[in-house]
Amino acid sequence: MSARLEQFLGRLSDAATVDDAKAAVLSAVSDFGVEHLVFHAALPNGEQVSAFTYRPDWVETYVEQDFFRVDPVVLGCYGGFAPLDWKRLDWSKKAARVVMAESVAHGVGTQGYTVPMRGPGGQHAVLTMNATMSDDAWARFTGEVKNDMLLAAHYANEKIIALTTPAHAASQALSPRESDALTYLAKGQSRGQAAEQLKISEHTLRAYIESARFKLGAANVTHAVASALSRGLICP
Amino acid sequence: MIRYIYASQLDAHAELAAEMFRDRAAQFRDRMGWDVTVDDLGWETDQYDAIDPLYVIAEDEDGHHAGSVRFLPTTGRTMLGEIFPHLMGGAPIRSPLIWECTRFCLSPKAAYGKDGAGVAQKLLLGGLQLGLEMGCTHSLGVFDRPMVRVYRRLGWSPEVLGSQDGISAGIWELSEGVADHFCGALGIDRAEAKGWLDASLSTLTPAATPVALPVRA
User: Fold this and answer.
1) Which of A78, A120, A122 minimises the CB distance to B206?
2) Which pTM was predicted?
3) CA B29, CA B122: separation in Å to the nearest integer?
4) Where would you tag: which of A80, B11, B48, B89 has the fewest CB atoms within 10 A of its CB?
5) Positive or negative, the Cα torsion across B25, B26, B28, B29?
6) The CATH number of the domain where B105 resides is what?
7) A74 assigned to some structural domain
8) Residue A147 carries which DSSP code?
9) A68-118, pLDDT tens digit by residue?
C-alpha cells in the first residue's frame, strides 16, 4: 500500500462524524495531488451525502443549467461499478461539449477519473478526481494511482455508511480465514509464515488481509489487527 | 473479439444477448445438469443478471456468441455472499480490488468444436485485461470442483478456498504475466487485447435508468 493512501485512510478512519468524514474525503486532493474531488453517496436510508471542492459558481451554473441531464460523467457512471476515465466517455454531442467548456471556464480540470460504487444493499456512490494535465501525463498518473483511487473511494463510502447506518456492521463480519490471517500477523509472524500455517499462497493471504482491512475500515495491517483485537474478533 | 457490456446495455446487442442466455441454458442446464431457471424463450437467467452485472463476451468471426462470463463487485451483492457463503466460512471476501466472476460459459459450437480451449482462453484473457485495467488484484469465482483441472489446463489456476457438495469457491490472482501467457498461446498482440476494452467503451457505461432484466423488458 502506498504512503499516500495510508495517510488518507488514517485521517478517514479517525473521523467520528459525517462532517469529519466529508472533510477527510476532500483532503484526498492533497494526498493524490489532484485539483478537485467530488464524492456523492445515496445512503441505504434514502438520504444523500455529498462533498466537493468545486467553486460555488460552477455548482450554481451546473444546477441552473440542468447539466446533470446531459453530463456524460453522470450518464456514464450512474449505477455502474467499473471505474471510468472521462476520456472514455462520449463527449461528441453538443450538449456534452458545452458542459466540458463551461466546467473548464469555472475552474474544473480537463481530465477526470470516476469510481462508481455499489454497496451491499444495492447502495450507490461515486467519487471523482479531477485535474488539468496533458493526456500523456494523465494516463501515467491514473496508471500509477488507479488502485489507490479504487480503495480510497470505497473506504470513503464505507465510512459514510458506517457513520449513518448502524445495521451496516452485519456485512463486516470476518471469515474464519480472515481472523486466522490477522491472528498470525498479530503474533508477529511474517506473511510467508502466516500463509504457510494457513496452507494458502501468499497472494491469497494478501486477498484475505485486504478484505479484512476493508471490512474493518483499517488504514493498514497494524490498525486492522488492533481493531480486530479491540472488537474481540481475534484472540491471539 | 471480446466485448464488455453491462446488462442494462444489452438491448443494443439483442441478438448477442439472446444467444448468450440460450447458450447458458445449453451449458448449465443441459450439459452440466444444474438446477437453473430457463424461461419460455429458452434463456437461463438468475437474480444476478437483474442487478446490472458486467458481461465479458467472446464473439466468433461472424459476431455470434462464443462464450461469456459475468462480473459483479464483491463490495455489493454477490452469489458467494448470498447463495454460497458457507464455502468461505459464512463471511466471503469483500474488497474493492476483487470482483466476482460467475456463469463462465461456452457456446455449444465452441464447447464441441476444435477451438473450445482457444475461446475459453480468450475469455479468461478478456476478464483479466478488464480487471488489470480497472485496478483490481484478484477475481473470486464459484465453480464445479472438476473445473479446477480445466482452468489449470487453460493456464490459469484458481486457488480453491472452500468446497462443499462438489462446488468450490476459488480465487485467481490477476497478473500481467498471465495476460502475456494467454496472448502468446492465442497468437494475439497484447495491444489488441487492450484495444478490446477501448472498443467497448460506449457500452461500458450502464444505462442511466437501470432496467429490471435485459432486453425483454
Assistant:
1) A78
2) 0.93
3) 24
4) B11
5) positive
6) 3.40.630.30
7) yes
8) H
9) 888 888 887 777 899 999 988 888 889 999 999 999 999 999 999 999 998
Taking the C-alpha atoms of residue B91 and residue B76, their distance in angstroms, rounded to an integer, is 13
CA A55 to chain B, closest CA, distance in angstroms equals 26
Shortest distance between the Cα of A78 and any Cα of chain B, in A, equals: 6
Question: What does the DSSP 8-state code read for residue A83?
Answer: -
Instruction: Inspect the interface and report whether the beta carbons of A203 and B173 lie closer than 8 Å.
Output: yes
Cα separation of A103 and A100, whole Å? 5
ipTM score assigned to the predicted complex = 0.92
Range of the domain at B17: 2-203
CATH code of the domain in which A220 resides = 1.10.10.10
Query: pLDDT of B112-160, one tens digit each?
Result: 988 889 999 999 999 999 999 999 999 999 999 999 999 999 999 999 9
**C-alpha torsion sign, points B39, B45, B48, B52:** negative
Count of other CB atoms within 10 angstroms of residue B38:
17
Residue range of the domain that includes A115 = 3-167
Same domain, yes or no: A141 and A39? yes
